[in-house]
Amino acid sequence: MNISSSGPPFQRKPAQVRPPPAIVTAAVTRGVARWFDDQGFASLTEFKLGNGRRADVVGLNNAGTILMVEVKSTPEDFRGDAKWLEYVPYCDGFSFAVPPHFPWQILPVTCGVVIADAHSAAVMREAPRHPLHAARRKALTLRFALAAGQRLSSVIDPRL
Global pTM? Predict the structure, then answer.
């Protein structure tokens, strides 16, 4: 076979290369934090709840509304994790945040969906709202304030 006269023997399709899941998760988390800020919410990442679980991103606004977002970088990450059900009782609204290439239609319709990258985020489906009981709201708000203060103190003095 004379490949010089007939062109290339095969055509290669460009490989679709995606960054590792940890890089995607960090980018989506940053986009969610920026989105929260744009919506008037302060946010914390890796926020420990009263049940011992750790929410990926939590937002608190001046009206006391608490929103939680669970970041999923791949469909396998979502399918292998059911602990998100334990976050819902600790917020007024729960959403998943996923990267643009994620098939977000596989996520439960009972949750909100946010598409995010490192720079911004867009709501694909609003999170259903279910108001917290006043005692739990107070406990979470105090926990949020304490965590935020401790994190700020550790920036000022890392030994704390």
Answer: 0.85
